[in-house]
Amino acid sequence: MDKPFAITLDVNSSLANKTGTWRVERPRYLDRLPPCNNACPAGENIQGWLYHAEEGAYEEAWRVLVEDNPLPAVMGRVCYHPCETACNRVQVDEAVGINAVERFLGDEAIARGWELTLTAPPSGKRVLVVGAGPAGLSAAYHLRRRGHAVTIYEAGQLPGGMMRFGIPRYRLPRDVLQAEIDRILALGVTLEVGRTVTDVAATMAGDGFDAAFLAVGAEIGKRAYLPAGDSARVFDAVSLLRGMEGAEPPMLGRRVAVYGGGDTAMDAARTARRLGATDAVVVYRRTRDRMPAHDIEVEEALEEGVQMKWLSTIKEVGDSRLVLEKMKLDEHGFPQPTGELEELDADALVLALGQESDLRLVHGVPDIVVDDGVVQVGPTMMTGHPGVFAGGDMVPGDRTVTVAVGHGKQAARNVDAWLRGAHHVPAARHELVSFDMLNTWYYADAPKTVRPQLDLARRTSTFDEVVSGLDETTALFEARRCLSCGNCFECDNCFGVCPDNAVVKLGPGKRYAFDFDYCKGCGICVAECPCGAIVMEPEPT
Ligand SMILES: Cc1cc2nc3c(=O)[nH]c(=O)nc-3n(C[C@H](O)[C@H](O)[C@H](O)COP(=O)(O)OP(=O)(O)OC[C@H]3O[C@@H](n4cnc5c(N)ncnc54)[C@H](O)[C@@H]3O)c2cc1C
Ligand code: SF4
Ligand code: SF4
Ligand code: SF4
Fold first, then answer.
1. How does residue 401 score in pLDDT terms, banded at 50, 70 and 90?
2. Which is more confidently placed, 461 or 346?
3. Mutate to test the pocket of ligand 1, among 190, 216, 295 (most ligand atoms within 8 A of CB)
4. What is the largest CA-CA distance in the chain?
5. Average pLDDT over residues 456-464
6. Over the stretch 108-125, which tens digit does the pLDDT of each residue have?
7. Whose CA is nearest to atom 6 of ligand 3?
8. Do 345 and 317 meet the contact criterion of CB atoms below 8 Å apart?
9. Which of 323, 375, 397, 532 could make a disulfide contact with 315, Cβ separation 3.0–4.6 Å?
C-alpha cells in the first residue's frame, strides 16, 4: 500500500534514528531516601520491606526488616511510629500503616518459626553487653552477626528490660517478647542472668572482654518531696509496674491518683483501672497539649475511664486524701501556683515523675563523663574510655524502645570497626524525597486500615492485649498503599511512555536502563514516574 502524503512513522521506526546527539539533558535512574526510612530511629529500610510485602513475599520482607531491627513483633506493638508521621502519604489521605504491617511480619515470623542466620566467620573477639533491654539485645544481635562472641550480663532474672518490667502486657504480651528474645539468643548469644556489673573496667579485665556495650537503662523512679502522713500509701510507677510481673499484683485500692504526665503515668493509671480502681486520676501540672505522653496513650487512657486533672500539683499527701493546688501557665508556658487548694480522695498515690540511671558501674572508670545523670558518648556511641560504648536510656536522647534498638545497631557497627582497628564509615545518604517529587495522581485512593481493638469492658477488667493485628488480606492492602517514594517499583510507566523506545527493561527485580543512542532527553519519563525515581541531568560534556 502506498504511504499517505502526510507521513506517520510506523511503530518502532524511530529505532532507526539514533537521535541522542540532540540532547542537552539526559535522564538517570536513582534511589532517593523516603521520609519514613529517614525518620525510623532503628534505621529500618521501610520502603524496602514494604516492597516485598506488597508482593506477598512476607519472609523476604521480614528478612529485609531484621537486617536493621531484630524485634519487629515488639516494634509493631510499642513503637510510637515516627515513620508514619513523616510518611508522604499523609498528604494524600493518611499515612501508610507501617507499624501495623511490621507487626504482621513479626507475628508471621514467630508463627512460622523463621530463624535468623549467621554468615560472618568467628572474629575471635569477645564483647560484653551489660543489660538485656532493647539496646543491649539489639547490640548483641548485630555484634553476633558480625562474628563476635557476645555475652550479656543481666542483673535481673529475666531479659527484656523495660519491655518486660515497664510496658504492661496489655500492650506487649510476654510470649511475643520472649519469642523475639529467644531468636536472638539462638544465634549463639550467651545470656547470664543475675549478673549485676558494679565496675565495668574490672569486669572486662577479669572476664577477658575486648570491648563492652553498656545498656543499663534508667530504672530508678524519681521521687519528689511531698509532705505525707505515716500511713499514706505512696508507690513509684516503675516499682508498681515491675510488681505486676511478680506473683502477687500490688494492692492499690479503689481510688488511685497518679502524679505525672508521661507515658509511664498513663500506663500506671490504666494498670490501676485493671486492678479494680474505680477512680484512676492523673494529676498533672500543665495542660494536655504540654503533656509529654504520646497522644495515643492519653486517648486510650481516657477511653478506659482514666480521669485527668490538668493544671494541678500535689501539696500534701494525707491518709486517704490529697491536697492539690491549682496552677496557671505564665506567659512562657511555665506552671505557676495560684494558692487555690482542693482535695482529692485517694487510697494510693503513684509517682510517675521520670526515671534516673544507676551509673555506679562507671564510677571511677577513667574518662567516662557523666553529665546531667547520663553517660556522654560521641557519634560512634563510644564513651571517653576506649572500647567502652553505651546506648539506650543511659545516654542523652529520646527514651524509647526504638531509639534504644537504633543505638544498639549503631554501637555494634562501631564496636566492630574498633575491634578491627578501623573506623566505621556510614553509607552515603541518598537525597530525601519530598512530596512534590511524586506524581500522586497515579495512585488509587485507599483509606488506611484500622486495627481492631478489644471491647472496653474487657479492656478495663483484663490484661488482654488491647490492639489486635492485621490479617493477611488487610496487611497486603496496607503494604500496597505505599507510594514507594523515591525508589522504582517497576510500574513500567517510563518504559511505556518513552516515545523513542529508549527505556530498556532488564527483567523482574532488575529494573530498567536508558539506551542513550535513542533517548532525545525529552524528560517525559521523569514527568511520568509516579515515585520520583528518575532525574534529568545536564548532558556530560
Ligand atoms: C512504663 C513504661 C512504658 C514505656 N512504654 C514505651 C512504649 O510504649 N514505647 C517505647 O518505645 N518506649 C516505651 N518506654 C521506654 C522504653 O521502655 C525504654 O526507653 C527502653 O526500654 C530503654 O532501653 P534500654 O535497653 O536502654 O534499657 P532497659 O530497657 O531499662 O534495660 C536495661 C537492662 O539493664 C539491666 N541492668 C541495669 N543495671 C545493670 C547492671 N549494673 N548490670 C547488669 N544489668 C543491669 C536491667 O535489669 C535491664 O534489664 C516505656 C518505659 C516505661 C518505664
Ligand atoms: S520501628 Fe517504629 S519508626 Fe521504625 S518502622 Fe517500625 S514503627 Fe516505624
Ligand atoms: S508512602 Fe511508602 S515510601 Fe513513602 S513515606 Fe510512606 S511508607 Fe515511606
Ligand atoms: S516510571 Fe515506574 S518503572 Fe519507571 S522508574 Fe518510575 S517507578 Fe520505575
1. very high
2. 346
3. 216
4. 109
5. 89
6. 999 999 999 999 999 999
7. 87
8. no
9. 323
Asked if residues 78 and 163 have their Cβ atoms less than 8 Å apart, the reply is yes
pTM: 0.94
Which amino acids bring their CB within 6 angstroms of ligand 1?
Answer: 78-80, 130-136, 153-156, 161-163, 166-167, 196-197, 215-217, 219, 238, 241, 263-264, 267, 358, 361, 392-393, 399-402, 404
Choose one of 36, 37, 44 to mutate for the ligand 2 pocket test, by most ligand atoms within 8 angstroms of C-beta: 44
3-class state of residue 50 by DSSP: helix
Q: Which ligand is nearest to the CA of 400?
A: 1
Alpha-carbon dihedral angle through residues 406, 411, 413, 419, given to the nearest 10 degrees:
-170
| Cβ atoms of 148 and 223 closer than 8 Å | no
Q: What is the pLDDT of residue 3?
A: 41
Report how far ligand 1's centroid is from the alpha carbon of 35 (Å): 27
The closest alpha carbon to 477, from 56, 160, 124, belongs to 56
pLDDT higher than 60, residue 17: no
Domains of the chain as residue ranges with CATH: 18-31+488-538 (3.30.70.20), 35-114+438-479 (1.10.1060.10), 126-219+357-419 (3.50.50.60), 226-353 (3.50.50.60)
Q: CA-CA distance, 128 to 151, in Å (whole number)?
A: 5
Q: Residue 292 Cα, ligand 1 centroid: separation in angstroms?
A: 18
pLDDT (tens digit, 9 = 90+) per residue, 478-523?
A: 999 999 999 999 999 999 999 999 999 999 989 999 999 999 999 9
Instruction: List beta partners, residue 329.
Output: 335
**Over the chain, what is the mean pLDDT?**
93
Cα 475 to Cα 69: distance, rounded to the nearest angstrom: 19
**Residue 344 phi/psi, 5° resolution?**
-135, 125
Q: Report pLDDT for 328.
A: 95
Query: If pLDDT is split at 50, 70 and 90, which confidence band does 319 have?
Result: confident
Which amino acid is it at 426?
P
Q: Which residue lies with its CA nearest to atom 30 of ligand 1?
A: 217
Order of strands across the sheet that contains 255-259:
234-236, 348-351, 255-259, 279-283, 307-309
The percent of residues in the chain predicted with pLDDT above 90, rounded, is 85
At 221 the pLDDT is 92
The strand pairing partners of 123, in sequence order, are none
What is the distance between the alpha carbons of residues 173 and 316, in angstroms, rounded to a whole number?
A: 37
Q: Which of 131, 146, 258, 118 shows the shortest CA–CA distance to 196?
A: 131
> Does the structure show a pLDDT above 60 at 52?
yes
Q: Residue 2: what pLDDT?
A: 42
